Amino acid sequence: MQSVKKPNQESRSPLDFLKNLLLARWRSLLLLLIGVYLPLQIFEILAVKLWKNEASFPWDVPILLAVHSTANTQLDILAVMLAIIGSPWTAIPIVVAIALILLLQKRWRSLAYVLTVSLGSFIINLIAKEFMHRVRPQLWESIAPESSFAFPSNHAMTSVTLVAILLIFNWASPWRRLVFILSSLYIIAIAWCRLYLGVHFPSDILAGWMVALAWAIGVSLIIKPYLTIAKSVDEQPAKDETTLLPEEKKLIS
């Protein structure tokens, strides 16, 4: 008699296996494409063209001049305040506070994500600036001048890194949409202040956004921080936060 294949029996066909694997992992693959590959591709295009031409892009100066044309005393004050709020030095206490909370909650996997993505973002920015050696715009005298190199923007990378951390830890909460809206406004406001102050080209901002986004999402795909707050009646940490996953144990064994 011809054997009847059970519905839950795994197919031995390579095509069926490939189809099932892609169906099971399509969300991760899509996130990898949109969140990692495309941002890195944009960053690479900007960096390569900048390296070859050693000049600003055609759209850099017009955008800067358009933003500068709105200058007034009130916006001067706002821009300087936003520059301080979005500074990496301001972000450090915030990251430390988040890290301490996760440490006290024994959410070690989430803690590893926060430390890795934050420190990595800082190192990437430092290396990229020293490698590219792009000078800052000198179209007018800035009221808050900067002396370091411009590409990519450290403020832009810091804002995206902080937002990525906040979104990941609020993704399953009812406040997700509000956090997303406020975070988007925060990123745009920080970018605007850097252009308004004349210390960055728009391409510096775009490059900072892209590389920080790719790094934050790429690290999340590897470390896999949990998107929900660890819940436990006896206030013990969730097991998956304090132990390695089976595949992680195999990698180090």
Descriptive tags:
about 250 residues; mainly alpha; 10 helices
Instruction: Tell me, rounded to a whole number, the average pLDDT.
Output: 83
The major beta sheet can be summarized as: none
- Give the SSE order as H and E letters: HHHHHHHHHH
Q: Taking Cα atoms only, what radius of gyration do you get, to the nearest Å?
A: 22 Å
Secondary-structure class: mainly alpha
Helical coverage, percent range: 55-70%
Question: In percent, how much strand structure appears in the residues?
Answer: under 5%
Distance between the termini: 46 Å
Count of helix runs: 10
Q: Kindly state the number of beta strands.
A: 0
Q: What's the domain count?
A: 1
**Spans where pLDDT lies below 50 across 5 or more residues:** 1-8, 227-235
What form results from the Cα inertia axes? Answer: globular
Summary?
It contains ten helices and no strands.
Structure description:
The chain has one domain. Helix 1 (14-53) packs antiparallel against helix 8 (202-223) and helix 6 packs antiparallel against helix 7 (176-196). It has helices at 14-53, 60-68, 73-85, 88-104, 108-132, 154-170, 176-196, 202-223, 239-242, 246-252. Helices cover 69% and strands 0% of the residues. The protein is built from ten helices and no strands. Residues 1-8 and 227-235 have low confidence and may be disordered.
